[in-house]
Specification:
alpha+beta, SH3 type barrels, 34% strand
Length: 114
């Protein structure tokens, strides 16, 4: 499977510890495409449809249908993870550049890079 930056994929996140998001869930790939092509790992941000009434500056709201998501959701830039590619189950959809830019800003907020 070709994995691209800005793509939404279904990924297996278990096992986890503490408050990390678990289960098989949508994730956004944020690693660069050279890494995604040649490395055995990809860097992701988990996506959740829980507690979407409040979106923090380190989260990005994605409406139902964006990137083929079935529900209103948000990207959790505070839970950056690197996964083995074998954890990627299937392709869901692709984000537009405007959403990727919002995610980059949320990561900058989380990592205090502003």
């Amino acid at each position: 499977m070709i994995i691209n930056r800005g793509g939404i994929y279904l990924a297996t996140l278990d096992p986890v510890i503490g408050r990390e998001l678990s289960k098989t869930r949508p994730v956004v790939v944020i690693s660069n495409d050279k890494n995604n092509k040649f490395s055995g790992t990809v860097t992701i941000l988990p996506v959740t449809s829980k507690n979407i009434r409040k979106t923090y500056p380190f989260e990005v709201f994605l409406g139902k249908g964006v990137g083929n998501l079935p529900k209103n959701s948000k990207v959790k830039a505070d839970q950056i993870r690197t996964l083995d590619k074998s954890r990627i189950v299937k392709f869901i959809g692709m984000l537009e550049t405007s959403h990727i830019t919002q995610i980059e800003e949320a990561m900058k907020v989380h990592l205090a890079l502003l």
